[in-house]
Amino acid sequence: MARKIRGAIVEHTAKDGRVYRALRFTAYGRRQFASLGAVSRGDAERELRYVLTDIERGTWRPPQEANPPPEPEPVPTFHQFAEQWWLRNERQLAPSTRVDYRWRLGHLLDAFAEHQVDRITFDDVEQYIAKKLAEDEPLSPRSINMTLTLMAAILDGAVDRELIARNPAKGKSRRVREREPRRTYLETAEQIAALLAAAGDLDRAAREDRRHVHRRAILATLILAGLRIGELCALRWRDVDLANGWLTVGESKTDAGRRRVKLRGALRDELVSVRAGQKGGPEAFVFATRTGAKPSRENVRNRVLAAAVKGASERLVEAGYGPLPDHITPHSLRRTFASVLYALGEDPGVVMDEMGHTDPALALRVYRQTMRRGDEEKARLRALVEGGEVAFGGIRALEASESAVEQEAGERAETAR
Question: CA geometry: angle at 186 spanning 184 and 189, to 5°?
Answer without folding.
Answer: 165
